[in-house]
Design brief:
The chain has 416 residues and is mainly α. Helices cover 81% and strands 0% of the residues.
Length: 416
C-alpha cells in the first residue's frame, strides 16, 4: 500500500514542471505565516480595542476596499514588468507592515494603516495566479491549482492550530512570526523562482506605457461572459469568506467556543482538502466546469445554512466538511476558468479582476455580517448565506447553458 502511494506521488511529480514544484514549496512556507494571523485578526481587533464586530468589519472592509485598487494596479504591473518582481515587492512589503501592525495601540491608527496596507499588500495577488497559468499547460491548470489548494490547506492544518495557541496568550507573537516568515519567503523566491512570462509577451508589454496597460482593463470588462462569471463568483465569495472572519466571533459569542476550538475547525477543513483534493480535481477535470461550480455552490448552501441550526463543536465540524467539499470543487475550477478566459498577454489583468471575487466580499461582507450579528438574530446570517449560494448555483447553470459548449471550456483527455 505504501509503495503504491509513493509511486502515485512520484507519478504526479513527474507530470508537472520542476519550477512549478518550487513555487509550491515556497507557497507552503508563505501560507503558514498567513494562516497564523489571518483567521484571528477579527478576534484581535475586538479583544485588543474592546469593540464589536461591526467596527472590526469596517476595518477589515477598508483593507479590502483599497485592496481593490492595489489589485488592479498589480495586475497591470504584472503584465508589464513580469510576475517575479511584483511578487517580491509584495512579500517584502508584507513583512514590514505586518510587524508594524503589532505595535498599533490606538484604534484610530488602524484606519489609515488599513488604507495604506490594503492598497500595497494586494499588488502581488494577480501575479501569483498569472505565474501558475504561465507555468502550466491548459490541461494541467485545474490540477495544478488543486495541488496549490492542498498545499494551502496543509498550512491551514499547521497555522491556525499554532495561531490559536499563540492568540490565547499574546497576539504580538503572531505578528512577529508572520513578518519573519514573509522575509524568509522573499529570500527563497529571489533565489529560486524565475520569471515565467514569455520573452515575446514581456517585450510587447514593456513597449506599452503604463497608462495603455491599465486601459487594457476596458477589454476585460467588455468580456461579458467573464463579467457574468465574476458576478456569480462574488455572490459565493460573500458567504464563503464568513468562515474566515465572522465565524470565529460568532462561535465565541453565541456558543462559547474559543480561538483554539475555531482553529480545530479550520484544521478539519485542511485535513479534508489534503486527503481528497487531488482525487476531486481528477474527478472533475473533464466535466463541464460551470456545472461543477453549480454543484460546489450547493454544497456551500447546505454547509453554511447549518451553522444556524447546530450548536455543538462536532456538528460544526460536519458543516465545515460539507463546505470543504464545495470548496474542493469550486476553487481550482474558478482559477482554471479565469486562465481559459484570458489571453496570455492579459493574464495579470484577468487575474486582477478575478480577485474581485474575494476583494468585494471582503470589503463589504464583514461589515454587513457584523451589523447582522450585533443587531439581529445571528443565525439569520447563515440562513441568508444559504439563499445566496443557491442563487449563485442558478447563475452558474445559466452560464453553462449559454457558453459551456465553447471549445475553450471543454477539456478533453490528452492521449500520449
Amino acid at each position: 500500500m505504501l509503495r503504491k502511494y509513493l509511486g502515485r506521488i512520484q507519478s504526479v511529480y513527474a507530470e508537472f514542471p520542476q519550477q512549478f514544484w518550487v513555487v509550491v514549496a515556497v507557497s507552503f512556507i508563505d501560507r503558514i505565516g498567513g494562516t497564523l494571523l489571518f483567521p484571528f485578526f477579527a478576534l484581535y481587533i475586538t479583544q485588543r480595542f474592546e469593540v464589536g464586530m461591526t467596527t472590526a468589519g469596517i476595518i477589515l472592509g477598508l483593507f479590502s476596499v483599497f485592496g481593490l485598487i492595489g489589485g488592479f494596479l498589480g495586475g497591470a504591473l504584472a503584465d508589464k514588468f513580469g510576475r517575479r518582481s511584483i511578487i517580491l515587492f509584495g512579500l517584502v512589503f508584507s513583512a514590514v507592515t505586518t510587524f508594524a501592525l503589532g505595535f498599533v495601540t490606538e484604534l484610530n491608527m488602524l484606519y489609515p494603516l488599513a488604507i495604506f496596507i490594503g492598497t500595497l499588500s494586494s499588488i502581488a495577488g494577480p501575479a501569483h495566479g498569472a505565474l501558475i497559468a504561465d507555468l502550466l499547460p491548459e490541461n494541467k491548470r485545474q490540477e495544478g491549482f488543486g495541488i496549490l489548494r492542498v498545499v494551502a490547506n496543509m498550512s491551514w492544518l499547521i497555522g491556525p492550530t499554532i495561531g490559536g495557541f499563540f492568540a490565547s496568550r499574546d497576539f504580538m507573537i503572531l505578528f512577529v512570526t508572520d513578518a519573519v516568515i514573509s522575509t524568509v519567503v522573499a529570500i527563497l523566491f529571489a533565489l529560486f523562482i524565475r520569471e515565467s512570462q514569455s520573452a515575446m509577451v514581456h517585450e510587447k508589454e514593456q513597449s506599452e506605457s503604463i497608462l495603455n496597460t491599465l486601459q487594457g482593463y476596458a477589454l476585460v470588462i467588455r468580456d461579458k461572459a467573464f463579467t457574468a462569471f465574476i458576478l456569480a463568483s462574488v455572490i459565493v465569495g460573500f458567504v464563503y469568506l464568513q468562515m474566515y472572519n465572522t465565524l470565529s466571533v460568532f462561535l465565541r459569542d453565541e456558543h462559547g467556543i474559543n480561538a483554539q476550538g475555531y482553529g480545530l475547525l479550520m484544521s478539519t477543513s485542511a485535513i479534508t482538502v489534503i486527503l481528497f483534493q487531488f482525487s476531486v480535481s481528477r474527478f472533475i477535470k473533464y466535466r463541464p466546469p460551470f456545472l461543477m461550480l453549480m454543484v460546489g455552490s450547493l454544497f456551500y448552501a447546505i454547509g453554511f445554512s447549518l451553522f444556524g441550526v447546530f450548536g455543538v463543536l462536532w456538528l460544526f465540524a460536519l458543516n465545515v466538511v460539507i463546505i470543504t467539499i464545495g470548496e474542493m470543487i469550486h476553487m481550482p475550477t474558478m482559477q482554471a476558468l479565469t486562465a481559459e478566459f484570458a489571453p496570455e498577454e492579459m493574464r495579470g489583468r484577468y487575474m486582477a479582476v478575478f480577485d474581485l471575487t474575494w476583494a468585494i466580499p471582503a470589503a463589504i461582507g464583514p461589515g454587513l455580517a457584523g451589523y447582522v450579528i450585533d443587531n439581529y438574530d445571528p443565525n439569520l446570517l447563515w440562513y441568508g448565506g444559504g439563499i445566496l449560494c443557491v442563487l449563485a448555483a442558478f447563475s452558474f447553470m445559466i452560464l453553462h447553458s449559454k457558453i459551456g459548449s465553447q471549445q475553450r471550456f471543454v477539456s478533453e483527455p490528452v492521449i500520449d
